[in-house]
Amino acid sequence: MDNIQAMIKVDEQLAAKLQAEEQEKYSIEEMLRMLVEMIAKRKRFFAAQRAADQRSKPPTKAQIRNRMCTYLRNMDSKKAKADTEQESNTKRAGDELEQEKAKKQKIDDDQEEAKLKKHMEIVKDDKVTIDAIQLATKPPMIVEYKIVREGIIRHYQ
């Protein structure tokens, strides 16, 4: 019995010695950091365990209804988004067609201008006179209105 008690004392002394060495090994800041890390790990572990428990339970009717409403809302917004994208694509295509038409028209105008420049003569005289003859003249017409009992009478002069 004395032998067993002696072994227990030796074990206690060894444990005390190891604990003292470990306390000397880590500073207070390091011990606090390790404690915070250990608490964070425990929180994550228990949160994961609660999430797993919730996933294993079947959803209630209210949860199913909420999920369905959310799903339908998202589908409506996706449909509206797809419609607007399709409209914008057709608008872009229309704009691109208009731009291509404008480019073709400009090219045609440039070609026509080049043809006209070929046929145009450059006049080098400083004195260029243009005789303009009036093709037709019409005198101004004066119209008088007189009101008579029977009606309006026009007089031309």
UniProtKB/TrEMBL annotation:
Residue spans of biased composition, Basic and acidic residues class: 75-113
Region (Disordered): 74-113
Superkingdom classification of source: Eukaryota
Protein's UniProt name: Topoisomerase I
